Task: inverse folding
């Protein structure tokens, strides 16, 4: 390393060390004032199974360890991240659409962890660029900032992909589940009993949502509000129409089995239309290698013999 690059690298390392010492000293018990929640917490009585009910079944042990280690530090960055990335209500809705039971703060902590990983990667790239290519320190700071922003955006993109994958799974499951509901209702089951039977005998994202809807109804929620909530917490538009159609059929006394069969048929027709649209888009994409690879080779093979004959004649 040259002289300026060594000074810049030392300054960055010293900055990281100073920030770490400040964070550590800020979380020492004898240097910070206990808030009201911490003082009242030992006197509160909790239910034995509350933690099990609030915890997500898909939470891994490694993720819990990371959240416990980085959670106190990440809490201070949640306010800034809230102001930069939007409101908590929209994020909570997206988490429910993805089927996640975690809180908004938990997702914010994951975003902070991803931004910290981006910070480390950006810092490594910046040090390599400064040491090997003599890049200016300002460009190095820009690389670090880009790494932090990309880390936050990557976590948001992964959440969007989770929503899309869950919507595609529900779209595949919905026609079969609607047929099962129609068979159960035609056999004499009530609509809620049919949903409970399907949720108990099937596996997948859609039966899990039916189980949550049945639990809400058993807890005292009305049938129409529970079915409306089923449509709002799922990314599938057909499921919202399903909940509305079932609630209207129950209120007006329409034969529910026919309504469910019609819903299943509509879902299959919608899947066929989506498949045709996807095939049309793929057909356009397939033209790219044909136009830019195959067609130039055909032209070369067609013209080259004529050019060779002309050169021989000349």
Result:
């Amino acid at each position: 390393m040259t002289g300026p690059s060594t000074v810049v690298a030392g300054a960055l390392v010293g900055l990281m060390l100073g920030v770490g010492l400040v964070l550590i000293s800020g979380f020492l018990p004898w240097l910070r004032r206990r808030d009201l929640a911490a003082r009242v917490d030992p006197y509160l009585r909790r239910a034995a199974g509350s933690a099990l009910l609030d915890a997500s079944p898909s939470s891994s042990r490694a993720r819990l360890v990371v959240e416990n280690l980085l959670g106190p530090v990440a809490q201070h960055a949640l306010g800034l991240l809230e102001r930069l990335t939007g409101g908590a209500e929209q994020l909570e809705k997206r988490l429910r659409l993805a089927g996640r039971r975690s809180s908004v703060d938990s997702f914010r902590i994951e975003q902070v962890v991803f931004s910290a990983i981006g910070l480390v990667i950006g810092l490594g790239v910046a040090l390599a660029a400064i040491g090997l290519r003599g890049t200016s320190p300002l460009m190095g700071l820009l690389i670090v900032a880009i790494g932090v922003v990309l880390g936050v955006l990557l976590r948001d993109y992964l959440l969007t992909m989770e929503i899309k994958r869950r919507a595609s799974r529900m779209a595949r499951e919905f026609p079969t589940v609607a047929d099962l509901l129609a068979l159960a209702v035609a056999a004499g089951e009530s609509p809620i009993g049919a949903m409970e039977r399907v949720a108990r005998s099937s596996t997948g994202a859609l039966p899990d949502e039916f189980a949550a809807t049945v639990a809400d109804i058993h807890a005292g929620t009305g049938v129409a509000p529970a079915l409306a909530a089923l449509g709002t917490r799922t990314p599938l538009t057909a499921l919202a129409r399903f909940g509305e159609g079932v609630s209207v059929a129950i209120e007006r006394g329409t034969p529910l089995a026919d309504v469910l069969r019609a819903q299943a048929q509509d879902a299959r027709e919608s899947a066929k239309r989506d498949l045709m649209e996807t095939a049309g888009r793929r057909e356009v994409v397939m033209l790219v290698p044909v136009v830019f690879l195959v067609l130039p080779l055909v032209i070369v093979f067609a013209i080259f013999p004529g050019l060779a004959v002309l050169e021989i004649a000349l």
Summary: The first helix runs from residue 3 to 26.
